[in-house]
Amino acid sequence: MTLLRNILMRLLSTAITLFGVAVIIFVVIRVVPGNPIAMMLPPGATEADIARLQAQYGFDKSIFEQFMIWLRGVVQGDFGTSISLRQPVSSLVLNRLPATLELSIVALLIAVVIGGTMALTGTRWRNTRKEGAIDVSTGMALSIPDFLWGLVLILLFGVLWPVFHISGRISPALDIDFTTNFYLFEALLRLRFDVLGDLIGHMFMPALALAIPLSAIIAQLLKQSLKETMHLDYVTLSRTHGYGEHHVITRDALPNAILPTLTLVGVQFTFLIGGTVIIERLFSYEGLGNMAIDAVINRDLPLIQGIVILFALIFTLVNLAVDMLYVVLNPRLRHA
Amino acid sequence: MNAFLEIRNLCVTLKGGAPILRNVSLSVSAGQVHGLVGESGAGKSMIGKAVLGTLPRALAVTRGEIWLDGVDLQTLRPAERRRRIGASAALIPQDPLTALNPARRIGPQITRRLVDILGWSRADAEARALELLAEVQIPDPARVMRSYPHELSGGMRQRILIAAAFAAEPKLIIADEPTTALDVTVQKQILRLIADMQTRHGTALLFVTHDLGVVSKVCDTLSVLYAGKVVEEAQMRRFFMHPIHPYSAALLAATPSYKDPEGSLTPVPQSVIDQVEREVTDHDRRAGL
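YS: structure for the whole thing
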């Protein structure tokens, strides 16, 4: 009963959030200078031409009227037609979404593995010089933004020691006939390890660039809460049972210490997805972010709206998932 | 050797020098209860921690021997030492609220070590846990096994920790102020329970407390500590009738009495504190500290 009510409340608040995002983005991109019509017409177009196109796309109406028209479409699943690409926004966006999701999730996995390993080894080495070295490196990783890490990686693994592909999502020669746009997932399921290797070769650097700052955050926070947990009595008691340091850290301290980190990772993961916009551009990776930049450059208002709404939806879903995971991991919340 | 735990000349120091335990020697035999009393910071708990190998990282055993069941723990490699302690000693901790892992059910917290460390079968370990929970008078043990710590009261949790301590039939149990964190009404029951369990299982018990009243109820022998030094070691009866060291006498005099609740408390006189302080400094000078 309460569970059902909680879910309904979450859905309601998600709907309100998305509506708010829609209003803001709709108004902002119409108020700022720049005009999609101007981008479409050749120089020297007449006033009449401009007015005709304005009317065709409905830009002659008031913002409120435009919004109502758009909203009516959205409710029916129609997000409008891209001005620059002349295709339905929904199919454009959904075709690109898998690429960005794969990139973000791989980045998240890398961040969790690197950050978690650093936190665990740092806890093991607590109060020694080695822990200091970990603190310094996470501090550095954190203070450099993801797009700069992208450039550093391109320099290292694209130029000086070219082992990874620096642009694109897949080598054109390899482009097999995918039935979905989840290339990585599909290659794995179809056991096409050659394709998988190529995909990873393309994805590795952008994913790592996105992952480095997040891994540093995970390492710092998780190590801190692990160190605090290590002083608790049940950890001491576990030691007296004959368990060694490794067991005590990973089996006793970790399940409790991970909770605050989990919340933060949820929030940070949404930042990471935001980071894909620039990173995808940097690595010419054909995802949503790259499309978003093109849409902004072309003042493709319907496409911008569609992408922003989708990002907002992903953010709220990620937060929902984190909250649910939190309840699963923390028995004290399970009965509430 | 008939003492199950024998500590000889144990010195523990803060890394960098300051002494925490000064030449502590004591022994506990099977079936015997030895009390460790002293003020806060006297090092009572540190003795238990040194035995169990759970000293804070900033502290280290610098000298002395800890014989457990005929083996000097100080000569063992860490893994072997842990295994030995896990198999033959157990701790009843001070605060039952923090001594159980909040993320795990009670059952596994009792049975885990039996399975992992001592190689029992899961079924045997579970049967044993149920039996022990019944022995510590927990109603509906099967349900409690499936509960999480936050669903149980402090007294229940301390009972569970006592059951867990006896689970592997250890020959030595170290109880570190096991009643301090509890409600006064529960304290007495828990004390009774520990004493009963100890008698029934014939365990050697090292009982750390600052409460002389508690000591008089459960202990056979005791050591009085001041600044990490044993100032008096005695049989219980003799100690309460004729304390030898003036500090012991002053501690006894400072214990509030039920018979005379209005009577003023006698603080430990400055002259006595000066005397024990002098003894400690003398000891340090002889030890070349």
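YS: worth flagging: Chain A touches chain B at residues 126-127, 232-234, 236-244, 252, 255-256, 329-332 (CB under 8 Å).
IM: good catch. Also Chain A has a mean pLDDT of 90.
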